[in-house]
Design goal:
heterodimer; A: 491 residues; alpha/beta; Amidase signature (AS) enzymes; 8-stranded mixed beta sheet; 3-stranded mixed beta sheet; globular; B: 125 residues; mainly alpha; 2 strands
């Protein structure tokens, strides 16, 4: 191993890309270095469900051959990990569930395919809350993920394997999915950068569905610049996803060069109400001052229905999940109970055994709110409140370009702390859920520490404003080094 | 011992005779659920909830239902329900074959197959 490759894990994606193109190290060296790191550190984090050693080494050799032949895409040789919700051809795809413990996908998700076509090398599949239902990565059938900043604590969820792996420098970037905050909250809790694009910006094809009107794929990276690089490859129309949006994909990397001068930043009055940890609030206010110092104009805005966003979500998302997860019937794929007495017994026991407690609660909540006599009172009502919440954002974006605030109410919490009461866990997503209900893009960037634990600054923009969001985040990261901090045990 | 269809049906019947398992209760939404209601919901969702899981399921589902019931306080007269973030319409696609038959590959994930068919317990007597 050359001198320069010893610290490869410390380099963010953009830097690795430059090193590969200069020939400082090969894709194979890089892959081997990170696989060794995963081998060494994953035991303490449980960030991976599967490490795809053979596939990664073969892909790295192909990437090096392509480069030598003057070929290869924009991500040629760059390592990535996929959340285990993305279908990966011929590789185990579990969604963190016993239900799919042995499921080997016959096809690739569009996100996986596009990243691979651009030359990215998959090192494995990251652990997650079962079917992405959770905010702590504790509901995984494969055990909880641990936060590299304090292994007694959660790395957030549901994309907690992705956030922990990136934070611990096991991999420079990972995909994630965000239905109510599942990219942004784990990014905040691990000191990483997490981008959830606009609904429809990135294809959902091959991404195991949780709540189809809310789900969106994105990335967890070390910086906004790295996120811009990946989004440019992932975004764009896909005819295999009926809600994919057909509009041009801007050059997100070129867009990073903009300025904060004159950018109108909305500060939500309700964000700093009771519920937000005072030290987190201080870190966020300091970040706002940094934006202001560069010419951004801070303006107070109202999101009057913010408090209703979590209860609205916990009607809409479970309703959609109860429908989506009806496909797991123990017949065509997935877990099947032994010795069924009849078909109904086969369904009920296969699903009862295959799903964990939180997934079952969500399916039942959804079944209840959609059941005869309750549909109007819960589901229709929630859809109406969803409209109000979406209108609140529309009104706010009449006056501001971006909304800035906290990503999560507290820093990383201890494993087991919030598992007794599901509602306590749900409230962790109070600041992120609104963007999903309204379909808006959001990004979390590290903005400080409280008692040695990272805090996230959350930026939300209007539909398809990823370019300006990434620019704001990148400009902020040019002025701060919170995103460059690395947990002590993983340097 | 598994909950059979018969048992589930009996639970539904028993509860229906008490005045309906899921009696609509508006505008005051229920703030808790009982064991019989939860078993009925589980049956609708085709989920077996094991006996030792029932008490916890009742407790936690009740907390969730209680929590979301606060939506009833929101003023939503004349608000058009929002089903989708971008108000998209479904796009038709050309009626042409795009996928080949990949049956063997797909069925390699099936728990039980025979001659290309999925096997299930006997449905017709």
């Amino acid at each position: 191993m050359s001198a320069s490759s010893r610290d490869l894990h410390a380099q963010p994606l953009t830097q690795l890309a430059a090193g590969l193109s200069r020939g400082d190290f090969s894709a194979l060296e890089l892959t081997q270095a990170l696989l060794a790191r995963i081998e060494r550190h994953n035991g303490s984090l449980n960030a991976f469900v599967t490490v795809t050693v053979d596939e990664a080494l073969a892909a790295a050799k192909r990437a090096d051959a392509d480069r030598a032949a003057g070929k290869g895409g924009v991500l040629n040789g760059l390592p990535i990990v996929h959340k285990d919700i993305f279908c990966t051809r011929d590789v185990l795809t579990t969604c963190g569930s016993r239900m799919l413990e042995n499921f080997v996908s016959p096809y690739d998700a569009t996100v996986v395919e596009r990243l691979a076509d651009a030359g990215a090398i998959m090192l494995g599949k990251s652990n997650m809350d079962e079917f992405a239902m959770g905010s702590s990565s504790e509901t995984s059938y494969f055990g909880p993920v641990r936060n590299p900043w304090d292994t007694e604590r959660s790395p957030g969820g549901s994309s907690g394997g992705s956030s922990a792996a990136v934070a611990a420098r096991l991999v420079p970037a990972a995909t994630g999915t965000d239905t109510g905050g599942s990219i942004r909250q784990p990014a905040a809790l691990t000191g990483t950068t997490g981008l959830k694009p606009t609904y429809g910006r990135v294809s959902r094809y091959g991404m195991i569905a949780f709540a189809s009107s809310l789900d969106q794929a994105g990335v967890i990276t070390r910086s906004a610049g790295d996120a811009a690089l990946l989004l440019g490859v992932m975004a764009g129309f896909d005819e295999r996803d009926s809600t994919s949006v057909d509009r041009p994909v801007p050059d997100y990397v070129a867009g990073l060069a903009g300025s904060l001068k004159g950018v109108r930043v909305g500060v939500v009055r309700q964000h700093f109400d009771a519920g937000l940890d005072e030290h987190c609030a201080a870190a966020v206010r300091e970040a706002l001052a940094v934006l202001e110092s560069q010419g951004a104009i801070l303006t107070e805005v109202d999101l009057p229905n913010l408090d209703l966003s979590v209860p609205t979500y916990y009607v809409v998302a479970p309703a959609e999940c109860s429908s989506n997860l009806s496909r797991f019937d123990g017949v065509r794929f997935g877990h099947r109970a032994d010795d069924p007495e009849d078909l109904m017994d086969l369904y009920c026991r296969s699903r009862g055994e295959g799903f964990g407690a939180e997934v079952k609660r969500r399916i039942m909540t959804g079944t209840y709110v959609l059941s005869a006599g309750y549909y109007d009172a819960y589901y229709l009502k929630a859809q109406q409140v969803r409209q109000l919440i979406s209108d609140d954002f529309r009104h706010a974006f009449a006056d501001v370009d971006v909304i800035a605030g906290p990503t999560a109410p507290t820093p990383a919490f201890k494993l087991g702390d919030k598992t007794d009461d599901p509602v306590t866990m749900y409230l962790n997503d109070i600041y992120t859920i609104g963007a999903n209900l309204a379909g808006l893009p959001g990004i979390s960037v590290p903005c400080g520490f409280v008692d040695g634990l990272p805090v996230g600054l959350h930026l939300v923009g209007p539909h398809f404003a990823e370019e300006s969001l990434l620019c704001c985040a990148h400009q902020y990261q040019q002025l701060t080094d919170w995103h460059e901090q690395c947990p002590g045990d993983y340097r | 011992m598994p909950t059979t269809l018969h048992k589930v049906a009996c639970i539904i019947c028993a509860h229906a005779s008490q005045g309906g398992a899921l009696r609509p209760n508006t505008p005051d939404l229920p703030v808790s659920l009982d064991k019989v209601q939860v078993q009925h919901i589980a049956a609708l969702a085709r989920l077996r909830v094991a006996d030792d899981e029932i008490a916890e399921t009742v407790d936690k589902l009740s907390r969730i239902v209680d929590f979301v019931a606060q939506l009833s306080q929101a003023a939503t007269d004349d608000v058009v329900p929002m089903a989708h973030p971008l108000n998209q319409v479904q796009r038709p696609r050309p009626d042409r074959i795009t996928e080949s038959n990949d049956r063997d590959r797909i069925q390699s994930n099936a728990p039980a197959i025979s001659d290309g068919f999925y096997l299930v317990p006997k449905v017709l007597e």
